[in-house]
Amino acid sequence: MPWAAYGEYSAVHVFTNPQGLSVDPLNFDPSAYRYDQIMRDKSEVVRKLRLAMVINGVDLAGAASCMLSAVHGDDDLTKTTDAFRTALAMLKDDGEL
After folding, report:
1. Most exposed of 30, 60, 73, 81 (fewest Cβ within 10 Å)?
2. How far apart are CA 1 and CA 63, in angstroms?
């Protein structure tokens, strides 16, 4: 799946790659893409990703982004990654991926 997660400081963004660009998720450099390529996905998959994350206890912003801070501990990170993994499985079962 050619998606990537990236961010600096407290913001984490999920690049859902609506245009099907060739990306390497492990070496993703968002500065190599235009803003409209990485931040303007208004597709149904983003809406469903957000809903699946909320169902699993994590609230993503509408642009598939979230904030992390020093108050978030290891348990929060584990819950978030587990929620993301489950959300992706839900999207796959729904035929979105």
Report:
1. 73
2. 19
Nearest-angstrom CA–CA distance, 68 and 95: 30
- What is the Cα–Cα distance from 75 to 29, expressed in whole angstroms? 28
pLDDT digits (tens, 9 = 90+) for 19-57: 888 889 889 999 998 888 877 666 788 889 999 999 999
Beta strands (DSSP E) in 8-62 are 11-15
Residue 89, CB-side half-sphere exposure with 13 Å CA sphere? 8
Q: Are 58 and 80 in contact (CB under 8 A)?
A: yes
Token couple for 86: 């489950």
Tokens of 69: 């801070």
